[in-house]
Amino acid sequence: MKPLTNIESFLQRFDNFKDGEIRSIEIISPTDIVITLAAQDKSRDFDWISMKLEFNGTDDARLLDKSKLSLIDMSDGINITSTNNNYIFGLGSSIKGLKNSSCFVSCENIRYEEGLF
Q: Which helix (H) or strand (E) is 31 found in, with range?
């Protein structure tokens, strides 16, 4: 897995995962969570790929039940912000409302891994 260092270019590359899909949410440990998404990749002529996001040092989160993942509207995509050595990931286009999102994770660092669709 690679560390997520440039949030802006990462989100631009995948158009904030708009109209993507949340495939799974795995709780690895009390502080480690993996969310797998599917999205179109601009750098691959908009081919669909899967993307694993690993959140380490989680201090707060609201996660969705597996049975509800297929019901999530991803038309607004996701957003990620970084403040004071802390990252916040959440569903939706508004950075201010990430912690009010139906799904969010606040953590110390984020790593990612690209996979096949």
A: none
pTM over 0.85? The answer is yes
The range of the structural domain enclosing residue 111 comes to 2-115
Give me the sign of the Cα torsion angle 26, 63, 16, 80. Answer: negative
In order, the DSSP letters of 58-104 are --EEE---GGGGGG---TT-EEEEEETTEEEEEESS-STTGGGSSSE
Count of domains observed in the chain:
1
Query: Which strands sit side by side in the sheet containing 32-41, from one edge to the other?
Result: 2-3, 109-115, 47-56, 32-41, 21-29
d(CA 107, CA 21): 22
Q: How confident is the model at residue 44 (pLDDT cuts 50, 70, 90)?
A: confident
Strand partners, 112: 2, 53
